[in-house]
Write a structure and sequence with these properties.
The complex is a heterodimer of chains A (114) and B (115).
Chain A: E1 4-7, E2 10-14, E3 19-25, E4 30-38, E5 45-51, E6 56-59, E7 62-67, E8 72-77, E9 86-94, E10 102-104, E11 108-113
Parallel strand pairs in A: 2-11
Antiparallel strand pairs in A: 1-3, 3-8, 4-5, 4-9, 6-7, 7-8, 9-10, 9-11
Chain B: E1 5-7, E2 10-13, E3 19-24, E4 31-37, E5 43-50, E6 53-57, E7 65-68, E8 75-79, E9 88-95, E10 105-106, E11 110-114
Parallel strand pairs in B: 2-11
Antiparallel strand pairs in B: 1-3, 3-8, 4-5, 4-9, 5-6, 7-8, 9-10, 9-11
Classes of the chains: A mainly beta (114), B mainly beta (115).
Amino acid sequence: KNQVEQSPQSLIILEGKNCTLQCNYTVSPFSNLRWYKQDTGRGPVSLTIMTFSENTKSNGRYTATLDADTKQSSLHITASQLSDSASYICVVSRQGAGANNLFFGTGTRLTVIP
Amino acid sequence: EPEVTQTPSHQVTQMGQEVILRCVPISNHLYFYWYRQILGQKVEFLVSFYNNEISEKSEIFDDQFSVERPDGSNFTLKIRSTKLEDSAMYFCASSDLGGGYNEQFFGPGTRLTVL
């Protein structure tokens, strides 16, 4: 069964600290993995995308890693800011042309406190 | 920066009523999508639309749902007879190309509450 699991479900950290969010998936055959940031009341916005051959990708203070062998990904946030408070969603694409090949995780809700 | 817009932001309706959720995709995009997210659950794919017809739909997208692109800019989702379990956040998305690698740009969502 194609599934995407994220942990932790929620996380509270102090401003300026680092954190790492986890994503495990069973989607097969794998095409790519994308991390989205979803602010409260807004739609998801893509942060990074990685294909099978990529094992790390950075976007500013966000760094995503991918281990396609163990089917795990992580999103590391460095020097967190209050504006990082949001849900972070891992989305894995299965090979194939259609949108029905996207599998969403339930997200990790991150709260950054001053 | 171009963005997907959705109206209304919040819709409250009585069970059994028809609702139409509206979306304006990014202007040069060709692929359009509807997703829903029940509170506390995952985002779920409903339907994709290309070249004025449905290209894919999930098992959630039953006969109660329909989509339309009535003009060159709007993309609508109609629920004919709403049920309590239709209460959710509905997201519209668009992309310039199809396929899983091409980024879909999401709108802010419409929160549908069915009483």
